[in-house]
Design a protein that fits this description.
six-stranded antiparallel beta sheet; mainly beta
């Protein structure tokens, strides 16, 4: 009992330690979601609390946990109490052994005024809480707290006395309370062990009595940088552009979201549907709310459609970071993040439209497993022509950020999940911050996941590197839903002892070539360049890191994007803050050659946060970006017609790529066009808040999460609360 009191008196510190030192949460000893027709049917009993009149306790018909919005009958316990009423609910005998345990309970109240007592009866594994004369012989370690309306996660630590416990909790309203009735919703009761296998913090191990005089070894250390040999350098490129420059015609300059209003647009992404049209998505306020809007750009006709809202709409929800893919039939599949959850944390969602902008699902697919105080952000999606699809994102459910993914099959207008739970992609380390994932899916189902990770320390300072793992649509995760160790991890950025940062990777695949580009930043000079590397589907680095932007000395590159230009060839776009230009370059992976010097697409831009590029069958490419125009972020774009045969003839003049470690710096020069560029301005249709159509849906009035979004079942590795 003394140890229990010590734990609870240090609850803020200890609970944080419990959360922070468990690299992955252990399997629960017990979990109850209260599914059933009645309490008795699932082994729970409700009795009147001492000193109170009995309150009404029943299996709920509405979801009690706003992070799990499944609204099937029989989920959760509802206890409705007026002043002076209360009910004690207790469950079955649960063997827990001799280890301390963490118990947790989800609570949601429809108004303030109720109190909850949560605890356990300490009993032997074969014990009962009552004798034959109905007198108790149990110990009740009690933790009570008043709570207001809203969602709460109650957590306590206990030291079992006899190897088993009986869980219980009480809901009551004090006799003198100034309320009418209060309904408490209870759900997701869990018991987790705390022992030497899952607690690594020395101080907490000492409190728990599991040190046994041995200092623990951290399960996930931050590795120390070990320099390896510098990659072999390829020959330097020819510094002067070849005179047989191809013909580039600037076809359309697109004002995708209107620039003459006060509505902003963010994070545009574009894809070509093999039918003369481009699909453009953005998080856009044009219709008065920040939703994911889809527009269709028909380049031959020079028209752009009115925007269509992709996501389910809620009055108090904002959307971000859309990513679009198009299948062989023209369906647009879009992933994004939004804050529709009751605590306004971010989740990843998925929906699709046909080629006419008609939504194929009424309800969005909730991709990530939701956890309290957890943000799932920066989603990226990729899909091959067979409908093999991967959604990846970064997620802070384990306190240190990790990269997660989920595989789906898209066919017959349906998403079929391949994975029942989220898969952790990166190798996990304490105190690291993996971020900005990207993914490419090959036609044979090979998946290459890339991200930026600051696990390496150089002279005591952590730096960011780009990593990759190659897996497939058939790879089976471990029981903890990690990629197995057989899936090797590749460091894509240079393995050296230089303190620079490789971040914001993007990836595209053509045949057996996976081309990865990223921004490499030198913190001491502020120089930022676009670098790239080439992998195959076996995870072999075919070409080590090299300059994509030719290593411009004063470069301040940002927001790289990459797409397939032609078989085995790629196009890269980026923004350079030093010159205010969006630029592009063509790269031949098969012959490891540049096909052009960097080409200036547009200049005099204030700022660009994101770019995207895609290519149609006529060698026209569309580049889109979000830039500051008069202090407002708007989405713009540029379509360019390229004389592809002339571009491809540059292969006859070998101009090999340059590795970033020792390669010369080439002066940036735009490729000359054979004729003056044709630039035409196309305005998107304008919408105002007053003329926007009714949104048709709003968040539920009870402040709970939207009940229309499906949610995966809780994970076996659900984390402890901060």
């Amino acid at each position: 009992m003394k140890r229990v009191l010590l734990f609870w008196s240090l609850s803020a510190i200890v609970l944080f330690c419990v959360c922070g030192v468990m690299a992955q949460e252990p399997q629960a000893l017990f979990r109850e979601n209260f599914n059933g027709d009645s309490l008795q049917a699932i082994g729970w009993t409700g009795i009147a609390s001492s000193g109170f009149q009995g309150a009404n306790a029943r299996i709920g018909l509405t979801p009690s946990n706003p992070y799990d919005t499944s609204s099937k009958p029989g989920r959760g316990v509802l206890i409705t109490a007026a002043p002076g009423q209360g009910t004690l609910l207790f469950g079955p005998v649960i063997p827990v052994g001799d280890d301390p345990v963490v118990i947790r309970l989800s609570v949601l109240a429809d108004s303030p005024g109720g109190i909850i007592a949560m605890g356990v009866f300490n009993v032997a594994p074969d014990g009962s809480i009552f004798t034959t004369d109905n007198t108790g012989f149990f110990k009740f370690d009690n933790d009570s707290a008043a709570f207001t309306d809203g969602y709460h996660r109650l957590t306590a630590i206990y030291d079992p006395k006899d190897g088993a416990v009986i869980p219980l909790f009480q809901f009551a309203v004090n006799p003198g309370a100034d309320v009418t009735t209060v309904t408490g919703y209870f759900d997701d009761f869990e018991i987790f062990p705390l022992n030497s296998a899952n607690v690594t913090d020395p101080g907490l191990r000492s409190l728990l009595g599991v040190t046994a005089g041995v200092e623990p070894t951290p399960t996930i250390p931050v590795p120390t940088m070990t320099p390896t040999r510098t990659p072999t350098q390829p020959p330097a490129p020819t510094p002067t552009p070849d005179q047989s420059a191809p013909d580039f015609e600037l076809e359309w300059l697109l004002d995708i979201s209107p620039q003459d209003d006060a509505y902003e647009a963010f994070h545009p992404d574009a894809e070509h549907d093999k039918n003369s049209r481009f699909a453009i998505v953005a998080a856009d306020n044009t219709l008065g709310y920040q939703d994911i809007l889809l527009r269709e750009f028909d380049a031959p006709k020079g028209t752009i459609s009115d925007p269509v809202t992709v996501n389910q709409t809620f009055d108090d929800t904002r959307t971000y970071q859309p990513s679009v893919e198009i299948d062989a039939g023209g369906d647009r599949v879009i992933a994004w993040q939004d804050d529709r959850r009751v605590d306004k944390s971010m989740g990843v969602f998925l929906n699709a439209t046909d080629s006419f902008g008609i939504k194929l699902r009424n309800e969005d697919i909730w991709v990530n497993e939701p956890f309290q105080d957890t943000n799932a952000i920066n989603p990226q999606i990729d899909m091959n022509s067979h409908g093999d699809m991967v959604v990846t994102w970064q997620d802070d459910r384990f306190f240190d950020t990790n990269i997660f993914a989920r595989r789906f099959t898209w066919a017959n207008n349906q998403f079929t999940p391949i994975d029942s739970k989220d898969i952790v992609i990166n190798k996990t380390f304490e105190n690291t911050a993996p971020s900005r994932p990207a993914v490419a899916v090959g036609e044979d189902g090979t998946i290459v996941s890339v991200w930026s990770d600051n696990r390496v320390a150089v002279n005591g300072t952590q730096r960011y590197d780009v990593y990759a793992r190659v897996w497939s649509k058939t790879t089976q995760p471990t029981s903890d839903f990690l990629l197995p160790d057989s899936v090797k991890e590749i460091r894509v950025s240079p393995s050296d002892d230089v303190l620079d940062n490789a971040r914001y990777p993007a990836i595209a695949v053509s045949n057996n070539y996976y081309f990865i580009v990223w921004i490499n930043e030198n913190p001491s000079t502020g120089q930022k360049n676009v670098q790239g590397a080439l992998l195959n589907k076996s995870g072999e680095i075919l070409v080590n890191a090299f300059f994509v932007d030719l290593g411009e000395e004063a470069g301040r590159a940002a927001a790289p994007s990459v797409a397939v230009w032609a078989p085995d060839q790629f196009i890269v776009t980026w923004f350079d803050a030093a010159t205010g230009e969006t630029q592009t370059l063509f790269y031949d992976a098969k012959n490891n050659q540049y096909l052009s010097d960097p080409i200036i697409l547009l200049d005099q831009l204030q700022s660009v946060a994101n770019t995207s590029v895609c290519v149609d069958d006529d060698y026209r490419f569309l580049s889109v970006w979000d830039g500051l125009i008069g202090g407002i972020s708007d989405a713009s774009g540029l379509s360019v017609i390229v004389n592809a045969p002339e571009l491809r003839t540059l292969q006859s003049v070998p101009r090999m790529v340059t590795a970033p470690e020792t390669g010369p710096v080439a002066k940036l020069k735009a490729v000359e066009t054979s004729a003056p560029a044709t630039v035409r301005v196309l305005k998107a249709a304008r919408f105002s808040h007053e003329t926007s159509p009714p949104r048709g849906m709003s968040a539920p009035p009870s402040a709970a999460a939207p009940t229309t979004a499906p949610t995966p079942a809780p994970s076996s590795v659900q984390r402890a609360v901060r």
